[in-house]
Amino acid sequence: ISMAEFDQSVRIYYAFRHDLYKGGVSDVYDVLDLQPDQIDVLVFNDKYDKTIRKKQRKKYRDEVWKDRIYFEPLEGKLGGNSQRRDIGKWFGADNPGIYKK
User: Fold this and answer.
1) Which tens digits make up the pLDDT trace of 60-90?
2) By the 8 A CB rule, do 13 and 1 touch?
3) First to last CA, the chain
């Protein structure tokens, strides 16, 4: 779990594999002292939104859930391909090395 704040007005929270917590995303929100209705944008990788229970989904504002964003995962073949496409190099998540094309 991580959080970054910019100019005391934009906060970004990231929970890696929220589905592995016993209470799911609710446990993450408890740790961060965050309520789903305080969230303006949801971004998911690997379609992890499918792991969020229907009861939890209803706590988000309708437009926030409807407009959720997906991005390509940054690991494995897909991640390597997107990194090569976007920046011309591949950086491994647990390996600081840079690999040539």
Assistant:
1) 889 989 998 887 655 555 566 777 778 777 6
2) yes
3) 32
